[in-house]
Design goal:
Layout lengths: L4 H17 L8 H4 L1 H18 L3 H25 L10 H37 L1
Helix pairs in contact: 3-4, 3-5, 4-5
Length: 128
Amino acid sequence: MLVWIPILFTILTSIIGTIFSHTLRFDYLMPAELFPIALIGSPLLLWAAKRARSHQKLIGWGLAAAVIFLVGGQALAVVTGLASGATPPTGWPWILMLSSITFYSLALIEIGIAGVLLVKKLYLLKKL
């Protein structure tokens, strides 16, 4: 599923980078950078959920939360000067921006789990 790609690529590149450099490497911004992929997958998953009449609210609210947290975090970074480098990455602006990216990533994981549950339900119904 397309929704999982930003999370899985982050984990995969982190593992590979850590192995080759012998230092922990983790690009916490990668899920946000790969948002276009999630933006393609989430509406498709929502469409499938509406057709199946299952998990619509879970996927819909997850998509709304992901967009709000990502846009909110970016707006906060621009307003506080973190995006331009005018403000050093410390203090409450940095914590709020990191929290927003974290909640965005958690929303993507929630959408992905809802997608897995949807597929599981559809295949179980098919077998019965």
